[in-house]
Each structure stands twice: as structure tokens, then as C-alpha cells.
Amino acid sequence: MKRNISILGSTGSVGVNTLRIVRTHPRRFSVKALAAKTNARRLYDQAREFKPECVCLYDEKNAAALEKKLRPLGIRLVTGDEGLAHVASLAGVNVAVFAVVGAVGLKPLFEAVKARKDVAIANKEPLVMAGSLLMAQARKNRVAVLPIDSEHSALWQCLEGYPKETVKRLILTSSGGPFRTRKGSLAAIKPSEALKHPNWKMGPKITIDSATLMNKGLEVIEAVNLFDVPLKEVDVLIHPESIIHSMIEFVDGSHLAHLGIADMRLPIQYALSYPERLVNHLPTLDLVKLKSLHFERPDKKRFPCLELGYEASRRGGTMPAVLNAANEIAVEAFLNHKIKFTAIAAIIEKTMARHRVKKQFDLQSVFEADVWARQQAIKLIR
């Protein structure tokens, strides 16, 4: 059956790779709607090629010019938060792909679930900020929450078909980022250095998160919420080759690992085609050329953001939203040369220390914590 998809964040790396999969399988997937934040030029090119029913440009500044160009194609343009919600819940959509950076995608995601759309999630914020709320809403509406990021897709595939009581531990792997073997202080690291990931091509924010290991801190929270497991059962190992994307340990001591090349199209395609597996034209994993795989414990002292992720999960309630918001502000400040690399963790830790956690929370509480944390982080940076 052909699946109609909407893509929120279509001009970013995940969105572009999703459209590459549609090109490969035009008989299986059709693009119903696209959304981007500011890149009107690329959004127009995508709309002209895939001819969706609706397009959303979140930033209204260039909306008039884009609408004029889309009119001859018969494509409707929407904008802002309402536009994102419309694209997410559009009638006829089977799967909504969420690849927008930041908290802006949270409301549209819940709108999609309420509209009974399966959701494929690449951005970490929803499952970090409001993961328990999201999973409860998804169960209520009987829709699937499908992970697109490679680590959680790997865990999902390893866990499939096994009773929860047979699983002892979930193991997230990390490349260790560009500074895993760097000697001496990390304070003098420049944004240009931090943006050079050794294995993956990603957007700037997530690439910095990989350099600080915050991406693993966020992924730990995601795993707890997505797979409904205790925090103590989620572990992180450094694996520089990025071939094993994650693995699970069973209660009998045996392990099951997911291996694959470092290409986002693999987890994206599986989420879109699930429960089927479709042929692709990507290079296959050559185990003979690998020769060896390496693992080591993460250095939480040099990269404290990982432990901050564990701490936010332990505290629960609104604390993960605070962690996420403070990190976004700190990463932006680092990219703009306003703070040092090592100050990212310091800003986050100080913001968390000032927060009074709400254990009983709803979506409004999450947004309030998000706004509060951003304000606190900005004050600390100043």
C-alpha cells in the first residue's frame, strides 16, 4: 500500500534523506506535505519536484514571495505554528516525519498523534521534554511512535519480539565525537573544530551535541521514555567505528547488536516502511574490511553533559525540558562565539540547579519550564 507522508523539517539533513528515499521508492511513498523553518528556496525546489498538497514556511518573512511561486503549481502555503500543526495533521497523511530542530515541533507532534497519524521522530526534543506524555497519548490513540535516529532505531529492531522481562540492559553506542582522544583542556575548542564530526553528516546543533556527548545524555532520556525501561537499565558505550548503532543485553548474558553503515537513510527507510524491509541502493557493510571493533567507557569528567542527561532523567518531571532548553541556548551561544566549549555544560548545570521540578506535569508545564530555562540560561551567559 502506498503511504502518504508529511515531512516537518524537509530542508534539513533528515528531511533531504527522507526525500531521497521517496525518489528511490516512488510507488511506495508519496509526499503529501512539506515544512521548513526559513529555507524558502530549497522548500520551493522540493515542492516543485514532489508536488505536495500543502507547504509550510514557518518564518513568515519570505512567505509572500514563496506563495507567488507556488500558486501556478496549485500548492497551498501555510505559515507559523498553525501551519506546522496543519501539515502534521493533514487529512490523508499516513506517517508524519518530524525532523525540526528545537521545541517548536512539540505542539505539531501532539496534533499529529491526536489526528491518529503514525509519527516518525528524528528530533530528540519531544521524547526528552514530554516523552511520557507523548507515549501515553500515542497509546490512547493507537498510533505508532517510530524512532528515526540510528541508536533508537537499532534498539527498536533489537527489542522487537522479545518480552520486556527477558531484557537486562539497553546499550546506546557513541562515536565519542571529534575530541574523544584530544589531550589537555577542551576550553579553547572553536566551533569550526566541533562541527567536524568523524562519522556522520548532521546539522550544526546535533553535531555540537555529539562533541559534548549531550546527544547521548538526551538519548538516554529518550530510551527511558520510548521503551518504558528504568534509567538504571540504560547504558552508554563509546564505539568509535559507529558500526554497532546500539545493542541489548538479555538476562541470560547474551547480547544482540544492530550493525550497519553510517547512513541515516537506513533508519529513515525502516521507519517509513515498517514492518516491511525495502531494497535500497546503499553500500553494504563489509565485515572483512572492518577487521576490529572497539569499545570504551565514556569519560564523564571531561564530557559532563552525559551525566547531566542521567541527572535530568533521575529528577524527572519538568527537569528534562529544562536540560534541553538550556542546552539549546548554550549551544547557540557557543556557535556564535559568545561562550567557550566547556561553558556549555556549566550553563546547563547551573540552570538545572535553579529549577524547582514539577513532578506532576502536563504539556503547558513543559512549555513553561522551557521558557523559564531559556531565560535563565541567557542570564547566565550574559
Description:
By secondary structure, the protein is α/β, with parallel strands linked by helices. The protein folds into 2 domains: 3-123, Rossmann fold (3-Layer(aba) Sandwich); 151-262 and 287-381, Rna Polymerase Sigma Factor, Chain: A (Orthogonal Bundle). It contains 17 helices and 11 strands. It has helices at residues 13-24, 40-50, 63-70, 80-88, 106-114, 125-129, 131-141, 150-159, 191-194, 204-212, 214-227, 265-273, 287-290, 305-315, 319-335, 343-353, 363-381, and strands at residues 3-8, 29-36, 54-57, 76-79, 95-98, 118-121, 145-147, 167-174, 234-238, 244-250, 255-259. A 7-stranded parallel sheet has the order 4-3-2-1-5-6-7, with helices on both faces. Helix 5 (106-114) links the parallel strand 5 (95-98) and strand 6 (118-121). The longest helix has 19 residues, at 363-381. It is globular, with a radius of gyration of 20 Å.
